[in-house]
Every structure is written in C-alpha cells, then in structure tokens.
Write a sequence for this structure.
C-alpha cells in the first residue's frame, strides 16, 4: 500500500474517528461501533477500507477480530508528510534568504 491509499482512506471523517478510537489500543468492531454514529455494518466497511489501505492490522481472536493501528502503514504516511514538511521548511528558508538579501541591498542606497 502507498501513502496515497492512506490519505484516501483517511479522507472520510468516520474513518479518522475509528483511527482515533484505536489509538487507545486494539478493539473489536462492536466496541468501535459503540462510539460512532454509524451502524455496525458501516463500521465494518470502514474497517475494511482502512485495512486495505494498510493502516490497520486485523487479528483473529476466537470468534471475533481485533483491529489495531498498523505501524508500517502509519510510518509510510508519516514519511510522506515529513517530506512535505521538509520541503516547506526548505522553501521558507530560501524565501527568508532572498528577503534578507533584498533588505541588505536596499540599505546600500
């Protein structure tokens, strides 16, 4: 899975809420559904999308399945976001240097 898949999956507010719930630790679908305004079948569909995007890990535990955040999926997304942040900082530093040079040049007049 790619960071594109993760971003697309997290575009939905219900899916973001599910990920927020899972920050507390692994949960079965029934427990996740209690804290959401959508039906249990809808939560299951959202969990599938998050899992397919590589953001969740699913572990069978008897008759139920526990969902947890998949560190690898989050790492791929974080790497992408960190690269954006790095580019933004480099652009800011470049612009600050240009402005500083322009200010110094103006003081010579």
């Amino acid at each position: 899975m790619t960071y594109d898949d993760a971003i697309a999956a997290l575009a939905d507010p219900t899916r973001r809420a599910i990920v927020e719930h899972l920050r507390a630790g692994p949960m079965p679908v029934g427990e996740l559904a209690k804290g959401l305004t959508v039906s249990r079948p809808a939560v299951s569909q959202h969990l599938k999308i998050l899992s397919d995007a590589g953001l969740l890990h699913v572990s069978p535990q008897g008759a139920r399945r526990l969902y947890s955040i998949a560190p690898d999926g989050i790492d791929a997304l974080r790497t992408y976001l960190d690269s954006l942040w790095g580019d933004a900082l480099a652009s800011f530093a470049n612009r600050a240097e240009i402005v500083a040079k322009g200010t110094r040049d103006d003081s010579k007049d």
